[in-house]
Amino acid sequence: MTVPAPLAERALILAPLGRDSQIALTILNEAGYGGLITPDLGTLCAQLEPGAGLLLIAAEALRGPELEALFHYLEQQPAWSDLPIVLLTHHGGQEQGPSSRLSELLGNVTFLERPFHPATLISLVSAALRGRRRQYDARDRLIDLSESERRLQSTLETLEQQVEERTAQLRHNEEALRQSQKMEAVGQLTGGIAHDFNNMLTGIIGSLELLRRRLARGRTEDLDSLIDLGVTSANRAAGLTHRLLAFSRRQSLDSKAVQMNTLVLSMGELLQRSLNESIQLDMRLNDQLWVAEADPNQLESALLNLVLNARDAMPEGGKLVVETSNQVLHQEFTQAYTNLEPGDYVMLSVTDNGSGMPQSVISRAFDPFFTTKPIGQGTGLGLSMIYGFSKQSRGHVTIDSEIDQGTTVKLYLPRFRGEELEHPVSDVQQAPEALDGETVLIVEDDPAVRVLVSAVLSELGYAFVEASDADGAVPILNSAQRIDLLISDVGLPGMNGRQLAEIGRQYRPGLKVLFITGYAEHAAVRGGFLDPGMQMITKPFTFDLLTAKVREMINN
Question: Is the pLDDT of residue 300 over 80?
Fold first, then answer.
């Protein structure tokens, strides 16, 4: 609020002793300045609120509890205000105490000795009021600036609202497009799954139905071929689910230190047999290769898939190069990928000089069930599995290709930073039969899986105790029942298998645990899921693998 000019430029006078205040007011009035005599500090402070140009105060008046109110007012002045004060002092100079404190607090204090000459007083008052007018001018400019800023802010808010509305519309359109693309991808995915699974289920169901019919008629010849047909179809279905989990980065990885050159060389014969005689295999392995961190089984599968893709791209023959090297990925490269950190990586690349791919194919190469091969010659899951495996392993995969020039796929895996590699201990074949009444606790919510596991262990002489969930297993673990091994599904209803194992080890320290899982997001990386004395196998598993693991874990 703007203060009226008479109030804004008046002098508030406080000189309670003698006639100083009346003399000062008379001099000011004769010079054309307004003023007001205040009897005490309290009245002076009250008069500051309507407005004042300066204060004319006798030093001896700066006493009493009201002095703090004056100090508080001066401290709370707005940024533009620096109220001038003329202190009337006794002959001999400036008093100490309140006068000095006020001078230090405000800085805009002028001292006038008594008795004072009228010209001196008027000179001081004139200078003080000129400075005060400049302060009021600055205040008015600030008000104008604030008003301009308010109008600008209002304009900006209007523009922001328009931008937000436009952005919201663009996001809506983008979301609609993304949803459309997502549904197209889901349709492609479900169509591919339905096609492949229906073929596999036909082989499984058909072979079992024929087995039942022949057994019902007493025909027992040639049953092995039907059994083999069903098992082959079931294994294909299991492989399909594993590739889907790899693509979605939800497979259970057993990441460890891997000597990639050793792994590639061990697969040399298999790779060579997978190629046509017209294709030359060239291995270029770096002698100083770092140790990689990865799941060796998944890495072998990825390499085989890349080699088979390269073979199919060279129907007339050509040259296939498998190369390993050390790579340092800098932030300029990795910042474009959310899961990729700058650092050391071990690279495995497969290069062919075949037909190559256009950019439209490269952009979709990692999509599940996308393939350019004729129907029946490819599922379209090979590259998508490699993509998911690389991302879940904290790595990366790239494709570079030119039409009629060939294709290079590079797989980057993080450098292993743990301790030195241990020499693998050769497996000693052990008889799977139970010894001395060994007992296994089986916790599995699927009745069919629970019955089958129980049956196969029973045939080998193991005693077993069953539970369908963790709530049923806890009392058994907390009993005197002998338990040599806990076999538990990870994805139990309610309390999961990993939590059950923790409770079991509280009751039975050192309890050995074998997890079985079809899909468990939290068990995707085994190194962070399994403690010593724990192992994991994934469904579907062979009973030979199950019984071998049971025997191995109980013996160890």
Answer: yes
Average pLDDT of 179-186? 59
CA 462-467-470 angle, to 5 degrees, is 125
pTM over 0.70: no
Q: In the CATH hierarchy, which fold is given to the domain comprising 256-414?
A: Heat Shock Protein 90 (3.30.565)
- Residue 297 in this model has a pLDDT that exceeds 90: no
More confident residue, 535 or 385: 535
CATH 3.40.50.2300 range(s) for the chain read 5-116, 439-555
Can you read off the two tokens belonging to residue 214? 């022949």
pLDDT band at 430 (very low <50, low <70, confident <90, very high): low
Please give the CATH superfamily to which domain 5-116 belongs. Response regulator (3.40.50.2300)
> What's the rounded Cα separation, in Å, for the pair 515 and 541?
12
Backbone angles phi, psi at 98, to 5 degrees: -60, -40
Instruction: Confirm if 57 and 85 have CB atoms less than 8 A apart.
Output: yes
Which pLDDT score is estimated for 424? Answer: 44
Give the closest residue to 435 by CA, choosing from 375, 502, 482, 495: 482
How many residues are recorded in the chain? Answer: 556
Mean predicted lDDT score pLDDT of the chain: 80
DSSP alpha helix (H) spans, 217-295: 223-247, 260-266, 268-274
Tens of pLDDT, residue by residue over 448-475, are 888 888 888 888 889 999 999 999 999 9
Write phi, then psi, for 540 (nearest 5 degrees).
-80, 145
Phi, psi at 534, each rounded to 5°: -120, 140
Q: Residue 37: pLDDT above 90?
A: yes
Dihedral sign (CA 230, 233, 238, 239): positive
The residue-averaged pLDDT of 3-11 equals: 75
| Cα distances (Å, whole numbers) of residue 481 to 465, 485, 513, 515 | 9, 12, 16, 20
Asked if pLDDT for residue 496 goes beyond 90, the answer is no
CATH 3.30.565.10 residue ranges for the chain: 256-414
Question: Residue 326: CB partners within 8 Å, gap ≥ 6?
Answer: 286, 288, 289, 290, 344, 345, 346, 347, 415
318-328 pLDDT, tens per residue? 999 999 999 99
Buried b (16+ CB within 10 A) or exposed e, 149-175: eeeeeeeeeeeeeeeeeeeeeeeeeee
The closest alpha carbon to 392, from 279, 501, 493, 255, belongs to 255
Residue in this structure with the two tokens 């290769």, named with its chain if needed: 289
Question: What's the CATH fold of domain 439-555?
Answer: Rossmann fold (3.40.50)
Cβ atoms of 386 and 397 closer than 8 Å: yes
